[in-house]
Hints:
Strand content: under 5%
CATH architecture: Orthogonal Bundle
Helix content: 55-70%
Amino acid sequence: MGSVDKEGTARxxxxxxxxxxxxxxxxxxxxxxxxxxxxxxxLNATLGNPLDAMIMQVxxxxxxxxNIRETTDADDNSFDTALKLWSRYNNDAGAAGGSKRLTFAAxxxxxxxxxxxxxxRVRSLEGRGWVIISDETGIDLNVDSSVNQLIVEEIYPFEKxxxxxxxxxxxxxx
Length: 174
C-alpha cells in the first residue's frame, strides 16, 4: 500500500473548510452524527453497556496519549506502529507520560458520570481484568486482557472502516 503524497495534495485552508461546512452542512452533519451513533452502538455492544463503554473510551484515550502519541517518531504515524506501541506498555510508570496519572476524578470530569459511579464501574472493570489501578500510575488499560483483544480485533477495524467512509463522504463535498 502506498503512502499519502503530502506534497502533491492540495489541502483546503481552514477558511475553505469553514465555508464547506457552512454551505454543505445538511449533507455533512448527518454523516458525522451517523459515524458517532454507529461507533457508540459498536462500543456498547462490544463492551457491554454505555457506562463501561464511555469509561473505557477515556481509559483508552489516556493510554493512547501517553504510550503512543508521546513516544511516536514524528515521521512514523502509521497505524501499525501505533498498534505495536499500544500493546507494549502495560501500566508502566517508566513509559512516556507515566507521571500523568488517570484518576477517578479525571474520568468523572471527562464523562460527566458521577464520581461514585465512576469509582464503582472502574473497580468492576479492574475485577474483570480490563484495567489496572495502582497508586503509582493511576488507572490504565490492561493490554494483556480480553478486552484489549476485543479493542484491537473488533473495535479498531470497525472504527477505521467507518472513519474512512465518513472522510470519503466529506471529501466528495470538496
